[in-house]
Amino acid sequence: MPSVFAAIAIAAVCLTGSTIAQPLAVQDVMRLPVGTYYRPGGSEVSGRVGARTTFVRSPCPALNTLANHGFIPRHGHNIPSTALRDANMAVFNMEFRLAQLQISSLPPVVSLSDLSRHNFIEHDVSLVHEDVAFGQDPASIDANLANDLLGRAVGGRLGVQEVGSALRFRLERCARKPTGCTFGTNQQTITFREAASFLRLFGGNGAEVIDVSFAHSFLVEERIPAGWSRPQRTVTDSDFVATANRVAQATGLFGNGSPHESTMFVKKVLALLALTAIASVVPVIDAQPMNVQDALRLPVGTYYRPSGTEVSGQIGARTPFVRSPCPALNTLANHGHIARHGHSIRIRSTAIRDACMRVFNLDFQVAQGLISQLPPILSLSDLSRHNFIEHDVSLVHADLDQGQDPAAVDPNLAADALGRATNGMLGVNEIAAALRSRLAFCQTKRCTFGPTQQSITFSEMSFVLQVFGGNLNGACSVDFARGFMVNEQIPAGWNRPGRPVRQSDLTPWANQVRQATMGGRGGGIGGIGGIASIINSLLG
């Protein structure tokens, strides 16, 4: 997916890509730079299910726009669904949870025209697409519907009320069809979430309003308009749910939320949210060792931590399970969010990145950076190579020259760290005091704690404070710290941070811990390469 990630830099600002007017051969189209707009027309394109035209498109203006600009394959055929997710995140600044939800009902590989199957994604009561019963190509824009919507603008803008009134008109029209109208709970959910996408994403400001010129460009031309910038703040599923509910109420069809239809709609939206929720209390399997086959059958989320001779953190270990010096990754493996055995995880398949985003709510760019320096296939024990990720002066792991398994938690170091808590909390000063103790011991022998190791160590501590702490306020309860760093388990009562964790949430705390530990010695974390320092920190 190099084109998607190259697109981030383009789409993050204001994309005014070039335009190709005349028809091109598919080979020439595929050579166009990412960002350049080319929209296939006439007999070369279709939105019908099973179409074998050179290009295929969908009833979704957002996906068609991504294809027309080359953020996903321009031909529209046989696209990995994860490519749709990643492009939505890169171009429209969706959070991972929301973007993952958008593809949750799709097969692993999909053609855009597959979305035209009636009541799968395509549905009655669309803003700019005619109901399928009228026989139009499902991907074609109906000029009358588009003009009706755009003509409802007030002061050159469309908001919740205007979109709601347009949808009411569509529904009344749909209900008069001889073939009848299908607008049940599923169709309502899709329709009102699409409206949220239209306002929140196409509007570009993260609010619930869109300039009519932007609306025309995205909906009619399926093109990123000149002057548009993606929302500055990551758009969350909570944003979508709030806007979807307001649009539903603005149709005037559901009163004040008391009718059965409105209740069912809200329940459906909440059910969708639950698909990606992380439970704060999870089942635990820890009574007896399990063979790897039985462990792999455990449901995702269930905690099982291998022990004894069945697990090792030594490089090249051939034990049934392997682990790393990184409590975060070990926690993910113990809960099945990445392969429980820890062997030969396909890093480039984004398993670690996606798990960190899903479980710890890491921002896409931070999580993508996390895997950027890793080999394509990695075993967790590979991270035990000294000064790759494993390093001296660790909070709960002994220095490598002490002869312990690199993945083993040292009980004395753990007790020392947790015992420094003030009022049940670990903050900058408590962690810095523990690190000073580690550094003083390390310096009595051969110790490697240069700029790279310092960056990894202090950035690790920002992760403890901000992510393990769960609330982005620079503190972690001793119970949460014990859960993650000693038991390598998502602790009962923990919730992931309420918004995506960005580099700007981590770097200041890393620098505070560095200053409290080192005083005037060493340099700030941000000075050695921005995301690169955070990348290593999240792994370490």
UniProtKB/TrEMBL annotation:
Protein name per the record? Heme haloperoxidase family profile domain-containing protein
Pfam families, per the entry: Peroxidase_2
Q: Is this entry keyworded Lipoprotein?
A: no
Which terms does the record give in the GO molecular function aspect? metal ion binding; peroxidase activity
Using the record's annotation, list all stretches that form the Heme haloperoxidase family profile domain: 33-242, 299-508
> Where does the secretion signal sit in this chain?
1-21
Q: Which UniProt keywords apply?
A: Heme, Iron, Metal-binding, Oxidoreductase, Peroxidase, Signal
